[in-house]
Amino acid sequence: MQLSELLAMPAALPSIPKVVALLMSELNRDEPDLRTVNQLVNTDPGLATRVLQLANSAHFQLAGRISSVSEALAIMGLNHVRSLVSAAALSGAFKAVPGIVMAQFWRYSLDVAKISRALAGNVRENQGTAFTAGLIHASGELVMHLGMGEEIRALDRTVPPLDPKRARAEQRSFGFAWGQVGAGLCRSWSFPQQIVDALQYQHAPFDNDAYEPLAGILHLATWRARAREAQLNDRELATSFPDVVGLTLGMDIDAVLQQDPIDWSSGSEAAMFA
């Protein structure tokens, strides 16, 4: 199957809900109208509930209890709101995916988001954007499992979905990998171009004519989270570290490992996305 064929399959690439499309459009403006954002979120009770659940969760690092969408908007700022809307939209679109343990997938994705946020702060990139990109970075894997049937499940039997070598195996087998697929999804959902580019080039950050630091951040965060999933030992960490990407961002392996979350994501955190 060609990448263009996969991205044209309605069953694999869910259409963005109308309210989320309107929210994305408003949030992507230079000066979004918070009153409009508040009204749009509140038109969808399910989305509003999920936004409040996420706003009050530990991984958004907010103090106190948020009880309304307007309060969330006032306290959190637009970058956090974008993260909330992105997470709520994706988790709503992909409830169950054959071949993917969704609780594990979201727990891992939260780990990548947390590490991306920490790395971004270390290299003076926008932490909210990095968190959003990390949270949705592997959405293409969900699309591939929905649209590619036995092809993708055959690969699962030899290289599991969260294996550190998974992107390379997909590229070798299909000519594309989950990063390009996720970029296609985010492009169709009108995500900011910076996030689309970061997902597109996260496997090979230097393939883009204009290097996007966020792609490098995702590359390092994904390496770290997948290494933890695979329980790599110190020697395996050292030999697998993407040092060229790290050097470009001014970070060696020790600096990257120091960005590990104080608390790795728990099953209860991931359950909010189920």
Report on this structure.
- The protein is mainly α and 274 residues long.
- Helix content is 64%, strand content 0%.
- The protein contains 18 helices and no strands.
- The protein has helices at 3-7, 18-27, 34-42, 45-55, 69-76, 78-93, 102-122, 127-136, 139-147, 149-156, 166-174, 178-188, 193-200, 213-229, 234-240, 243-248, 253-257, 267-270.
- Helix 2 packs antiparallel against helix 3 (34-42).
- The longest helix is centred in the middle third of the chain and has 21 residues, at 102-122.
- It is globular, with a radius of gyration of 18 Å.
- The relative contact order is 0.13.
- The model has no long low-confidence stretch (mean pLDDT 88).
Q: Can you lay out the helices and strands and say which pair or pack?
A:
Blueprint (H helix, E strand, L loop, with lengths): L2 H5 L10 H10 L6 H9 L2 H11 L13 H8 L1 H16 L8 H21 L4 H10 L2 H9 L1 H8 L9 H9 L3 H11 L4 H8 L12 H17 L4 H7 L2 H6 L4 H5 L9 H4 L4
Features:
274 residues, mainly alpha, 64% helix
- Tell me the total number of β-strands: 0
Mean pLDDT across all amino acids = 88
Low-confidence stretches: none
So how many helices?
18
Instruction: Return Rg in Å.
Output: 18 Å
Order of helices and strands: HHHHHHHHHHHHHHHHHH
What class, by secondary structure content? mainly alpha
Characterize this entry briefly.
Helix content is 64%, strand content 0%. It has 274 residues and is mostly helical.
